[in-house]
Amino acid sequence: MSLQELIESTVTGLGYELVMVELSPRSRLVRVFMDAPEKPRGVDVEDCATVSNQLTHLFQVENIDYDRLEVSSPGLDRPLVKAADYTRFAGSQVQIKLRMPIGERRQFNGTLIGIEGDQVQLELGGNTITFPLSNIDKARLVPKF
Question: 49 — phi, psi (to 5°)?
């Protein structure tokens, strides 16, 4: 089982959603971003401590070699990583950066309509723009203050 799979099974087993794992081989850092969709205010410090303690024990048992483990919420500008994220956050303001430009644009800010098949739909100035999920380099929610 890969490190990503170990982390995902542990985080989901504790009742949370794994958003993303970042690995930094040079600094031997494992950074885990998690969410709690059923909690209205999201992940809190106690949730992060619970997952961190569990992962620390898991890494010892599995002999995972690392120097630092960071566990946190994805933040207000949560990245959209999985196809399900594009359904869950439909209606939200998002910022999307594409791998390959459409016309001469690679960055779009608009309202996420959702995903249909593998096509992400974005409302931009009253127009609907669609592009393949595979063409998205990065996508994040735009926080409301």
Answer: -65, -40
